[in-house]
Amino acid sequence: MDKLIYVVFATLSCVLLASAIEIDTYDFLMPNVWPHRDELYLCTPIRISPHSNYYIVGFEPNATMHTAHHMLLYGCSEPGSNESVWSCGEMQSNEVDELYNTASPCRSGSQIVYAWARDAPSLHLPKDVGFLIGKDSPIKYLVLQVHYMHRFPEDKVDNSGVFLKYTKESMPRQAGVILLGTSGVIPPHHIENMETACTINENKVIHPFAYRTHTHALGVLVSGYVVRQDEGGDVWTLLGKKNPQLPQMFYPVVNIKPIERDDVLAARCIMNNTNDYAVRIGEHFSYRATNKDEMCNFYLMYWVENDTPLEQKYCFSAGPPYYYWNRARENLGNIPPSEV
Prior knowledge:
Layout: E1 6-7, E2 15-16, E3 22-29, E4 40-48, E5 53-62, E6 70-76, E7 78-79, E8 86-87, E9 106-108, E10 111-117, E11 123-124, E12 129-134, E13 141-148, E14 161-167, E15 173-182, E16 185-186, E17 190-199, E18 207-214, E19 219-230, E20 233-242, E21 251-252, E22 264-273, E23 279-280, E24 297-305, E25 314-317
Parallel strand pairs: 1-4, 12-15, 15-25
Antiparallel strand pairs: 2-3, 3-14, 4-8, 4-13, 5-11, 5-12, 5-14, 6-10, 6-13, 7-9, 15-24, 16-23, 17-22, 18-21, 18-24, 19-20, 19-22
């Protein structure tokens, strides 16, 4: 039996905004799961009705950092499993779990729609901006992934998740997210710059409006930039920087100038490893990462006018000791100095 929940976004808690756009709420929550071991990632899906378009315009988290280490909301063409809940802490389905079957969050068409950690507050998108899902979108399913750092007692279950604000009204501006991150190793008793950069190769104009940083305990500062060529060489424009130990919410970007083809997106995570041992970045940014590993992520949220978001959803580098900005194939110049 297909255990996927077939969701037709019906009217749930309807709110009429001053702009006369009807906003509904869908409670996308874990179905009372039992995190039976430490460092467990669980996923649950909803299938979007293929007959209509919907635009997600806001996210209200239903979680605390004492329960959930972090949450990711994936858009998928196909979910990683047909189960109502599965273990999604491995890229490959070779992990043995006595309670849940194992698969990746998405089988195909994976992209990040939303992310939350450290008691970050709600996120509401700008006017006329929404994430298109359903009929005319490659996002046919949404998959909620929750990382549980610690095992729950046998008599405790969890329904962490997110309240999705959505509308059936057509939005002229589609939202998208590109995730920048690295792999790599941080040596013991060492401050390390973990860096990544990618050129925008698509003939689109994207308008950045929010960013989010994410590391685990070693992160000191995460910064994101746009790099553009000028007669005087590369010009680095800051999109945003934040101490990742603060609430990991989406903050407004500090520069909203449109980003175009041939511009370079770049991110740096400054890590301070005071341990007596090396710390590695968990593979594939979440699939294998535990709290004892590290992560270096910079999320950029943007909108496009009467267009579709970038096909490129991810920008990852090998990280240290193999990759730094001064070794990038983009041949970057005028690299900003480390701030720590």
